[in-house]
Amino acid sequence: MGKAIQWLRSVVFIAQMYVAMPLMAVFFAPFAMFSRDWAVRAVRSYCSYVRWSASWMVGLRSEVRGEAPADEVIVAAKHQSFFDIIIIVSACPRPKFIMKSQLKWAPVLGWYALRIGCVPVDRGKRGAAIAQMKEGVKKNLTDPGQLIIYPQGTRVAAGAHKPYKIGTAVLYEELEEDCVPAATNVGVFWPRHGLYRKPGLAVVEFLPRIPAGKPKAEFMAELEEVIETNSNRLMAEAGFELPPARPPA
């Protein structure tokens, strides 16, 4: 009976979340149309609302640990579901994402994403995608903020393994900026697919920054190690049973 009620609460929560999106978007649109500051305020307000409504509608509380960056840095984050996006945007004052190109056509979401400075990239051949990413970032250099990228390139289920892609290292070298890794456990409670939302404490943790200037290979090895180790720690803290470690190749 308890799980059935949680299913119902989850469905109601998701429905109202998607109803609130266009309502808030329309309310802020006259201001966001002329001001990036207002577009950022709109997006962050919506994300704060989702976190608040999740806490009492489905019992999913959320917490930011570590120091959310406020300067111009790269944020390389573990991506498990839509909820880690929500938490990161609500924590960073000027967030902008490397996002898949199809999202720019999404109603409401796509327009606001472009207004806050997100960079759309086509998924395809690696060389073409990296060139497109570099070009898009250069066009947005006049808009300061925190550039958020997902090193694995997509959502990854809690406990699953997916290799890290070179795009983060390319940006790290190209922009000559520090990188702030971010770990999470949100996939334990809000999976990448499905409607069920599990009550508990979802965490995004900003980890100590990696200074600019390291060699690509060293940077990528350190990035993967700190994100995966700390995400595993947060998932274990949430009661998630991690699969056995894979033997070295």
What does the model show?
- The protein is α/β, with parallel strands linked by helices.
- The protein has one domain (2-237): Glycerol-3-phosphate (1)-acyltransferase (3-Layer(aba) Sandwich), CATH 3.40.1130.
- It is built from seven helices and seven strands.
- The chain has helices at residues 2-32, 36-57, 82-91, 109-115, 126-139, 167-175, 216-237; strands at residues 60-65, 74-77, 95-100, 119-121, 146-149, 179-184, 200-206.
- A seven-stranded mixed β-sheet has the order 1-7-6-2-5-3-4, with helices on both faces.
- Helix 1 packs antiparallel against helix 2 and helix 2 packs across helix 3.
- The longest helix is centred in the N-terminal third of the chain and has 31 residues, at 2-32.
Can you lay out the helices and strands and say which pair or pack?
Layout: H1 2-32, H2 36-57, E1 60-65, E2 74-77, H3 82-91, E3 95-100, H4 109-115, E4 119-121, H5 126-139, E5 146-149, H6 167-175, E6 179-184, E7 200-206, H7 216-237
What would you say about this model in short?
This protein has 249 residues and is of the alpha/beta class. 46% of the residues lie in helices and 14% in strands. It has a single domain, classed as Glycerol-3-phosphate (1)-acyltransferase (3-Layer(aba) Sandwich), CATH 3.40.1130.
